[in-house]
Amino acid sequence: MKTGSLAITLPALVGAGARHFALSMDGVVLLAPSLPDAPLPSLQLTPLDTDRVRLSWSGGGYALESSTNLNLDAVSYPFGPWQQVSNMSNPYTNRLDESQRFFRLKK
User: Fold this and answer.
1) What is the number of structural domains in the chain?
2) Is 17 part of a structural domain of the chain?
C-alpha cells in the first residue's frame, strides 16, 4: 500500500489578470502483486507398442489438436488445418494407422 499527496493547480481569470488556486488531496493507492507467468505445457509422447502411442501433457485448460498435413495455409500457425481431437482426455492414446499425424496443444 502506498500513501501520498496530490496537488492540483487550477488557473482562474479574475479581471485583467490571472490568479491561481491550489487544491490538495490525500489518497491511498493499493497495488496488487502481479501474478507469475503460467508455465508452458509440455507434451510427452510414450510408445505403447508398434501401433499405439500415449500423449500426455502438463497444465490445464489446453485442447489437443491434430493434423495429418502441415501446409502453407496462412489461417493457422503452425500451418494446418488443425482439428480438435474428439473424445480428448489426458492422457490420450492414439493408434498409428496413418503415415503421419501432428499434434499440438492450444489454449
Assistant:
1) 1
2) no
